[in-house]
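Customer escalation, tier 2.

The customer says the design service returned an amino acid string that "doesn't look like it belongs to this structure." They asked us to rerun it and document both sides in this ticket. The original structure tokens are below, unchanged.
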């Protein structure tokens, strides 16, 4: 896969000119510091390939945490017209609605720093994690249908949180276009015992502390303050979402051939959004996204109750409150200005986070005049960030930004690099307590496997597409 030539626009933007069948230009947001890693990856060629998708508007975009993925790069954003454009499962990814949830508490760092081992052990015990592990919630067929249709609202209705939580979840924790009937029996089978499970790989629960505040007024509105203990949860739709993606790819591949779509990579298999195949995938994807919203809602309750028991504190004393929950593997119907005119679009964000600024549509009342929190996790050993979107980001990226640090080593490469080392001990020397269920998880997820999250966030801020609000540091991390 030949890498495209990149034209530097400024310190934070690199253009891929339109040529050889591309319908739009490509644009990669990065800094000179990140450019060598980016150019060593196949992802820029995938940005170019995405620019061939029928109905694409604006530009094929990539964030500074970009790396190679299935079809689309991870860190890719593309918007296609509803009326004549396509939807592509590769633009969402296998883990549909993988996302991040941040919970604020009343605790300060001194309340937990001598009890981190206790807390990590409790969370590892109380929150199901790992490949194929079943959850705390066993669903009947009818209950699973309701989860797929109702999302986080189902979890709240069944005692896994408060109704006030729903306002602080992207799209209120429910995509209206979900149709459980479009989800295969195999996908449902994989999902009936995985609600309330963390999964494996880069999914985690993290106890972190607010280390820096960059915008005090907005941080206060988000409920964040210096020295505060927070809880961050990263998980998705588990085996159900994976199966929804897998089910769609064969039908999409046939559609490309039957309709003569000119797409340079078979992994970019797609169908017109309004076609039967397009709607089958979209409605099943929305159902899987609802499952993921419900999953994180249950995970939050399990984690909060575990901490309350471990510390012997009452709910009011802990004061756990959801700050926000955002998706970063999803395709959504949104209206954006294209050449000065509003158009309804299918916005694909794969390893990219929605970042809507103040007064944008689809914001909850509590964040109407600030924009919603944008949650950017780092790796186990470095910072995570809370950002906020900008109007410039709405205009240039359809209201999107990065989703994390972005890998630089494959999982096999990380395991090889970690040979003979104890990642757990290395992190402990930095004051970070780590627990995991998988034997190779810590090696796969070692800090060196990822880009510098500070550099990634500096790049999106330098490009003007989002701004830093707060920086959080990990104290304890639980992995599958």
């Amino acid at each position: 896969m030949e890498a495209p030539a990149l034209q530097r626009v400024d310190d934070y933007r690199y253009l891929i000119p339109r040529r050889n069948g591309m319908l739009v230009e490509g644009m990669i947001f990065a800094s000179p510091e990140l450019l060598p890693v980016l150019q060593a990856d196949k992802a820029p060629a995938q940005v170019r390939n995405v620019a061939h998708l029928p109905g694409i508007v604006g530009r094929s975009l990539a964030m500074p945490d970009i790396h190679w993925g299935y079809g689309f790069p991870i860190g890719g954003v593309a918007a296609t017209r509803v009326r004549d454009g396509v939807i592509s499962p590769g633009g969402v990814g296998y883990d549909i609605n993988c996302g991040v949830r941040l919970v604020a508490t009343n605790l300060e760092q001194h309340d937990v720093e001598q009890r981190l081992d206790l807390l990590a052990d409790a969370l590892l015990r109380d929150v199901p994690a790992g490949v194929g592990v079943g959850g705390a919630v066993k669903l009947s067929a009818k209950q699973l249908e309701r989860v797929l249709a109702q999302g986080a609202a189902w979890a709240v209705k069944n005692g896994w949180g408060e109704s006030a939580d729903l306002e602080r979840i992207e799209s209120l924790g429910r995509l209206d276009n979900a149709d459980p009937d479009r989800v295969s029996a195999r996908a449902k089978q994989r999902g009936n015992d995985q609600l309330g499970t963390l999964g494996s790989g880069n999914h985690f629960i993290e106890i972190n502390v607010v280390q820096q505040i960059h915008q005090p007024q907005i941080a206060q509105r988000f409920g964040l303050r210096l020295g505060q203990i927070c809880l961050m949860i990263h998980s998705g739709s588990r085996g159900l979402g994976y199966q929804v993606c897998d089910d769609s790819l064969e039908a999409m591949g046939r559609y490309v051939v039957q309709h003569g779509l000119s797409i340079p990579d078979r992994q970019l298999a797609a169908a017109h959004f309004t076609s039967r195949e397009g709607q089958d995938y979209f409605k099943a994807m929305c159902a899987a996204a609802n499952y993921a919203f419900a999953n994180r809602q249950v995970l939050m309750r399990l984690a909060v109750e575990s901490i309350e028991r471990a510390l012997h504190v009452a709910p009011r004393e802990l004061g756990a409150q959801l700050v926000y929950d955002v998706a970063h593997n999803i395709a959504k119907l949104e209206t954006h200005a294209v050449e000065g005119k509003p158009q309804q679009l299918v916005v694909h964000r794969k390893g990219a986070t929605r970042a809507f600024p103040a007064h944008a549509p689809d914001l909850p009342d509590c964040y109407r005049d600030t924009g919603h929190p944008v949650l950017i996790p780092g790796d186990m050993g470095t910072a995570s960030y809370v950002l906020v979107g900008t109007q410039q980001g709405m205009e240039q990226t359809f209201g999107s930004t990065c989703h994390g640090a972005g890998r630089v080593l494959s999982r096999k490469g990380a395991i090889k690099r970690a040979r003979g080392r104890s990642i757990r001990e290395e992190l402990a020397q930095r004051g970070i307590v780590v627990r995991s269920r998988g034997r190779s998880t810590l090696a796969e997820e070692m800090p060196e496997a990822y880009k510098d999250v500070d550099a990634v966030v500096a790049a999106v801020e330098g490009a003007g597409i989002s701004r830093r609000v707060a920086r959080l540091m990990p104290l304890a991390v639980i992995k599958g």
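Tier 2 assessment: The sequence is consistent with the input. The longest strand covers residues 466-479. The two ends are 34 Å apart (CA to CA). Sent an explanation to the customer and offered a walkthrough call.
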